[in-house]
Write the structure tokens for this entry.
Amino acid sequence: MNRNQPTIVDFDPQVLLEHAREAQDRAYAPYSHYRVGAALLGRSGRIYTGCNVENAVYPLSTCAERTAVVKAVSEGEREFIALAVVTENGGTPCGSCRQTLREFAEDLIILIGDAAGRHRQTTLRQLLPESFSAADLPSAPPEPSCPAGCP
Ligand SMILES: [Zn+2]
């Protein structure tokens, strides 16, 4: 953790859920019609949103949660406090998204909302118990030096 950045421990669940609902409006789901919005709160206090983006080649579709993670990490944020995900029926993040979130947060707070405005709170630890992480990998060898020809 970068000690120069503020640590946000308190947050308003309703604000995070509202960001997720706005992202849900942008979902591109012409095949499943299952619209998902996500909002990921970084330790910096910044919120990264995501929606599901489907593709005619179905396996290329991306979930809302992973869209938010990729946006955040590509913007330089790697520590997260909470995730809100909103669907029509209060569906939970899929297994792929749980594992993607686990890469960056072991104990993420997860808010699961539905179209009626209800939500419940859980954690990534509850959704993905006994998870696999980098700590389970053997020590990696040092990065090889740049092969000849690299700048
Ligand atoms: Zn997913």
